[in-house]
Amino acid sequence: VLAQTDDGDETDDETDDGVDEGEDGETRAYRVTVANLTPGQPFTPPAVALHQPSVEVFSVGEPANEPTQELAENGNLDPLPGLIEQTDAIRAAAVGEGPLVPKDDPGDTGNPYYTTVELSADASATHLTVVSMLIATNDGIVGVDTVELPTEVNESKTLYANGYDVGTEENTELY
User: Fold this and answer.
1) Gap between the Cα atoms of 149 and 73, Å rounded
2) Is 17 left (phi over 0), alpha (psi -120 to 50) or beta?
3) Which positions ≥6 away from 20 have C-beta within 8 Å?
4) pLDDT band at 34, cuts 50/70/90?
5) Which of 7-43 are b and which e, b meaning 16 or more Cβ less than 10 Å from the residue's Cβ?
6) Cα Rg, the chain, nearest whole Å
């Protein structure tokens, strides 16, 4: 949601370069819910980032960076915090608490099919990225990359993520 000033007015303070910096360092709070709507594909805990538009955690048609490759091949989320620390344009990030399974939980895992993370960032964070490994693949991810965040108080968006083959491992599955 869009940050509000103490008097309840929405903030919209842009610098000369067009980057919205907010007022007096105010932050905007977002609630991001990730749901697994697949019929049978579990996901690793999703990684969520609020960032400036220059950030690309992954890019369709381009080779995967090392953190995305680690996630896609091994479900390893550990390199992502390093990417976040090295990238000043990423203003906030969080990881879901556990794996997400389809709603009917076909493996009777007891895991949820959705998770919600809450993040706050300064107003220069205008975009969202969500990425998770498709567990039953050798190098697949599901996600949305660099989509615009809502700009109005209590505005929400529903996004449907695509699955991607990161292309770093040979596809040798027989089924």
Assistant:
1) 29
2) alpha
3) 12, 13, 14, 123, 124, 126
4) very high
5) eeeebeeeeeeeebebeeebebebebebbbebeebbb
6) 17
Structure tokens given for 154: 């209590």
- Is residue 130 scored above 50 in pLDDT? yes
Are 129 and 146 in contact by the 8 Å Cβ rule? The answer is yes
Phi, psi of 131 (to 5 degrees): -145, 145
With CA atoms as reference, report the closest residue to 129 among 101, 77, 94, 87.
94
Cα torsion 164, 167, 169, 170: sign = positive
**8 A C-beta contact, residue 107 and residue 118:** no
Q: What are phi and psi of 37, to 5 degrees?
A: -100, 10
Mean pLDDT of 61-72: 89
Q: Is the pLDDT of residue 157 over 80?
A: yes
pLDDT for residue 155: 92
Question: pTM above the 0.90 mark?
Answer: no
DSSP lists the bridge partners of residue 96 as none
- Provide the phi-psi class of 4: left if phi over 0, else alpha when psi is between -120 and 50, else beta: beta
Asked if residue 44 lies in contact with residue 131, where contact means CB atoms within 8 angstroms, the answer is no
Task: Supply the mean pLDDT for the chain.
Answer: 84
